[in-house]
Design a protein that fits this description.
Structural class: alpha/beta
CATH architecture: 3-Layer(aba) Sandwich
Bound molecules: flavin mononucleotide
Number of helices: 13
CATH class: Alpha Beta
Number of strands: 7
Strand content: 5-15%
Helix content: 40-55%
Radius of gyration: 19 Å
CATH superfamily: Flavodoxin domain
Strand order of the largest sheet: 2-1-3-6-7
CATH topology: Rossmann fold
Length: 308
């Protein structure tokens, strides 16, 4: 009998879909495996490209983990799967709203209970806090996170901040202005690395033994963490919930009363990132020298799947 894998994913532009399909190509070729893809679909689709206000108005609910309504799943939650892949993108240093909404459904409770889970993340470059939230959700669903694979945009933080803005606000999926790098995870990287990562997961899946999985994934380069981004994200993680509360005190998503605060966030955020990024890049060169143990401990922690 074939072993069954459920792949839960959401994608707007197709970037995440490309990443998860490339990762699972070794599974696709294995005739002992049945792959079932479940695309999460919000009842009201999120816009792409986004307007400035649409984008930043989603920030409070995203950070606070407030779910949106989803269309019913195609899969019957009582079906059994031997492994569940959750492929998601980070939104505002949190799990994207559609996937976070899925995690809060009754269906997710049934599907994920006592199941082995591998997460596949595709995002700009900041996924650490989102994965902390994912770890906590999986723990409360009694699921067992056994592997994590990450794909990020390899351009510098400031470059990808410009290209991601062109991507989300204008839908630019090519070289912005003709010379900036294409936003997102590179096709070459997906072609070269993703099947290797997927092959490692497949090997453990076939044996039904996952103890060394994450270690092998780390050794093969499946986890990308940069010290400067870890520090920058650490600041955002503290600041975001405060500003999210500040906005939502004025009203719920889409209300007129909170527009001024939403707009202020949309102006402050890029300014803070543009000014802090270079400073933090310098600090991040010094921190590992001053606090080598702490720096390594943090990197190791975020490379692994337990929640502290
Ligand atoms: C509302 C929103 C917020 C985002 N926030 C982050 C973030 O905090 N960190 C990050 O690395 N990428 C962030 N991104 C980029 C996404 O993770 C992802 O790369 C992009 O949306 C493409 O995914 P897609 O497959 O859904 O099109 C954000 C994108 C959107 C739309």
């Amino acid at each position: 009998m074939k072993k069954r894998v459920l792949v839960v994913y959401f994608t707007q532009s197709g970037q995440l879909n490309n990443a998860v399909r490339a990762t699972l190509s070794p599974f696709e070729k294995d005739e002992n495996v049945e792959l079932v893809y479940e695309e999460i679909k919000p009842v009201t689709p999120f816009p792409f490209p986004w307007t400035f206000m649409q984008f930043f108005d989603k920030f409070p609910e995203c950070v606070q983990g407030i779910p949106c309504e989803l269309q019913s799943l195609k899969v019957n939650p009582n079906e059994n799967f031997d492994l569940i892949i959750i492929a998601y993108q980070a939104w505002f240093l949190s799990v994207s709203i559609p996937i976070n909404s899925f995690l809060q459904t009754e269906a997710a409770k049934t599907l994920l209970k006592n199941k082995k889970v591998v997460t596949v993340i595709s995002c700009r470059n900041m996924w650490l806090n989102a994965q902390e939230k994912m770890k906590a959700s999986l723990l409360s669903l009694k699921a067992d996170l056994v592997g994590n694979i990450t794909y990020v945009d390899r351009a510098s933080n400031l470059t990808s901040l410009i290209t991601v803005m062109a991507f989300v606000f204008k839908g630019v999926q090519d070289k912005y202005l003709g010379f900036m790098p294409v936003y997102g995870v590179s096709k070459e990287e997906l072609a070269k690395d993703a099947p290797v990562f997927g092959g490692i997961v497949l090997k453990h899946f076939a044996r039904n033994e996952y103890s060394g999985l994450q270690k092998e994934l780390i050794e093969s380069g499946a986890i990308k963490i940069k010290a400067n981004l870890m520090i920058l994200e650490g600041r955002g993680k503290i600041f975001f919930p405060i500003y999210a509360n500040f906005i939502s005190k004025k009203g719920t998503s889409g209300t007129k009363e909170r527009r001024a605060r939403v707009r202020s966030f949309g102006i402050i955020l890029p300014i803070v990132v543009f000014t802090l990024s270079p400073i933090i890049t310098v600090i991040s060169r010094v921190v590992p020298l001053l606090f080598p143990k702490k720096n390594k401990r943090e990197m190791d922690y975020h490379s692994n799947n337990f929640l502290r």
